């Protein structure tokens, strides 16, 4: 068997041969090691297929998918023997690349879920086969020498430029990164493909010439050095050629532009090969020459099948978008390339180009690519064209006729066709370059463009939406003031002046004492102070500017205790009713005994009567009595006093008890509840009660 870490092209294998089983040694890549298996080619499903045809397609595609799955399951050496020496496999893969449905083909939309699943399975199997064929190293043990790999794929035509282009079209969507790695590896291991690519670019330019010739046109860049053929004048144009020739030409253009765009999008390194042949200039000239005739032919020719006309219009529009995107890719990957022939005679092309990709970005790219070369006349022309195109894009679709002429055209058409709406007629005029005769003729012969057929013929003229009034929607802090001219009809103009007010100086302003005179009457009431006013009998004090004095009113407020009965937790009235000190009491001894008995009922303890002559009592006795009253009250309410705490503990170094440790932790956690830690809260409370002036 083959040795490990040796490339496949250097390996040899020993196999038995003949009825006697004699062993022989062969290279790992040898035709005799190929398995005898016939790969069936791909057959597409017809558009209008019957149930038997669908069943035949499913069975045929199933055989093809099973063969490819078998191929992918082979080991490395057997796989490459089958790929290199089995011609039926290459015919099978080529048939799929040639006949598989593209994006715009009707067959790309399967008629049933079974067909869609089978097509998806077969699509994946073909892609995985090409991906493995483009990989020269699958693992550390299974690989090919890079030079030998490049020779194998090139000499055996496993890959060529047409195949690579088809791979990009069919598998580019969703697999762009894998395809880029695959194609990059092919071009890296075999540089001969770059020379094949140069020949392919020449063939693409010949395709453009063929389309121009079939349309009876001449591209400026293609035939500038060649004499015009005498038979060119007798060539049919896009308007006069047969319908089938026009269909083939549109399909040819659509397939070519789609393929080139897919290839350059996935493998941008190929842009240099296209640029070396002046492809961008030729593409722009081709676009300017062919696209107007193609669009005119598809739009104005009479088709029996309107669905075919819509499909052709869709393909022409798709081709235009792809050509614009190709130009954008070439510009994005341009490095110090000549721009002198880039945008000459390309107003139509630049207009469509600027709609998808702003030209200002390309100007910035040009300045980055050519930092040392000054912007000469070529760049000036480029900027002038860009400014013109940008102005056209900003202004929108420019109407070639004036408003009066447009109204005249509408009136002329409506005289003959009064049942048609002005909106529909405007769309027809725009479509046919404001040619009223052509519009009337196409309407009467029912040969309108597909986009006009979809419109409502009674469509009115679109009404221009008026922007809301700025004055009605504005909002300002000076709205509705005395100088708001937008909401007031009359404004005092004497209070409005520009700059310094005329006839006014600083001295006059300081000497103006008008404001003092205005305040004089207010303060004159305070000038006269009268000690005594004689009130005549039968007159009221109000006649003399005096207020009546109500003694009862003042006495009422004198006995009120303002704020004394407010609800407050710290209020003394809520804790204990107000009592007159004993020293100030007047009464007999029986009244004093009654008050003391009431106090004893509240506290639950009978206190010893205090003699009248003992004005100052012993503080220690008072504290003892207060403690006794507090203990009695707590006992009555069921209050359990906290056990004594010991936070001092023993001297340092002798250890502490558990009780001391717990007491210290409790003190640390609750120290903010007492002492001086809540002085701000208590100060705020006193200030709120009016005890501290704010």
Automatic annotation (TrEMBL):
Biased composition (Acidic residues): 593-603
Gene3D superfamilies according to UniProt: DNA helicase RuvA subunit, C-terminal domain
GO molecular function: ubiquitin binding
Basic and acidic residues composition bias: residue spans: 20-32, 661-671
Organism of derivation: Myripristis murdjan (pinecone soldierfish)
Region feature Disordered, mapped onto this chain: 1-32, 585-615, 627-694
Gene, per the UniProt record: ASCC2
CDD domains on file: CUE_ASCC2
Protein name: Activating signal cointegrator 1 complex subunit 2
Record-level GO BP terms: regulation of DNA-templated transcription
Cleaved signal peptide residues: none
Domain named CUE: residues: 405-448
InterPro entries: ASCC2, ASCC2_CUE, CUE, UBA-like_sf
Pfam families: CUE
